[in-house]
Amino acid sequence: MSWTIPEIKSPCSTIRYQALERQSRLTKPPGSLGRLEDLAVQLAAMQSKTKPAVDRVWISVFAADHGIAEEGVSAFPQAVTRLMLRNFVHGGAAISVLARHLGASLEVVDVGVAEPLENCKEIIIARAGNGTANFVKQAAMNESQLAIALSAGAEAAQRAIEYGAEVFLGGEMGIANTTSASAMACALLNAEPDALTGPGTGLDDAGVAHKRGVITLALRNHAAGLHEPMEILRRLGGFEIAALVGAYLQSAALQLPTLVDGFISSVAALLAFNLRPACAEWLIFSHRSAEPGHRRVLDALDAKPILDLSMRLGEASGAALALPILRAACALHGEMATFTEAGIPTE
Predict the structure, then answer these.
(1) If we measure between CA atoms, which residue out of 82, 111, 107 comes closest to residue 95?
(2) Tell me: domain 57-325, CATH 3.40.50.10210, correct?
(3) Catalytic residue among 71, 315, 335, 341
(4) Which end of the chain offers a freer environment for a tag, N or C, measured as fewer CB atoms within 10 Å?
(5) What is the C-alpha to C-alpha distance for residues 113 and 172, in angstroms, rounded to an integer?
(6) Is 249 in contact with 6 (CB distance < 8 Å)?
């Protein structure tokens, strides 16, 4: 199986100008709504609508397991990934609760859980394997598996378009995936693991030190092959991280705005940016994670996250919490009166 990086166009500059002009006529001092004004204008350009909206929301949570878990880099056993799949579809996970309250469409995609749920019709099956390989010892995946995982993300973006979504949210679940994301970030940023390795699901100091050592060894073992973004993803990534990369690139190609979640999602965004820099114009960053490496990744993308709530859950939960801010920005932009409509002189 092969996968081709799609071509990406920029958001509409004409609509951006029109949205800016509308902002200048609303009954408020210029700039008084701060980032809300910027977000409304950004969404207008993305949607090619002077008055944007984010009422129809699509959330895809990609789940997969990681061979690196056998190195003891997580506070939880790998079996939790499978158990969380059941929790997602039964409505008990954080993102399940948030999706209900937001009126969002939520799907769960099995991209490579080690022990898949049997006969569960609620889960989209797009498996690249029974989890990745242990990337300390070998590449996390082969080229065919990488293509399957990338395609799984691209197909999720296509389903979002068919649903009529106005914004796409991507989430992830996979025990040990912060180890994978941290290793990828080190390779992409040419940074040391000390700066980018955090507790993930709740490691203590000794656990973080061990995790850092595992990442250092993996980077050393793969050093000769970490010069191209796609090889970084293949050697160090996870199936669910690759799916996020595919989803971001395809959403951008389909001109669908994407609200990016936390650390792992942002590492996927950084890799997508390295493959197609124009992808960044279609990304809105929802929050700054408590993971220490997230700030470095956001800085590399010149990203300004909307929220900072010390979260580190994943699942697209941070992105879901930022959605009401986007809705407020759109409502203010579209429903406030202009000075002319309010009969207020400007001179």
Answers:
(1) 107
(2) yes
(3) 315
(4) C
(5) 12
(6) yes
DSSP assigned state of 117 = P
Alpha-carbon distance of 100 to 21, in angstroms, equals: 36
Three-class secondary structure assignment of 126-167: CCCCCCCCCCCCCCCCCHHHHHHHHHHHHHHHHHHHHHCCCE
Do the domains at 13-51+333-342 and 57-325 have one common CATH topology? no
**What is the helix (H) or strand (E) element at residue 33, kind and residue range?**
none
Q: How far apart are CA 251 and CA 74, in angstroms?
A: 31
169 contacts 319 by C-beta, under 8 angstroms: yes
pLDDT digits 0-9 by tens, 224-253: 999 999 999 999 999 999 999 999 999 999
What's the average model confidence in pLDDT over 138-152? 98
Mean pLDDT of 32-44: 98
Please say if 107 is a catalytic residue.
Answer: no
pLDDT in tens, 89-123: 999 999 999 999 999 999 999 999 999 988 888 99
The conformation of residue 278, written as its DSSP 8-state character, comes to G
- Amino acid symbol at 156: A
CATH-assigned architecture of domain 13-51+333-342: Orthogonal Bundle (1.10)
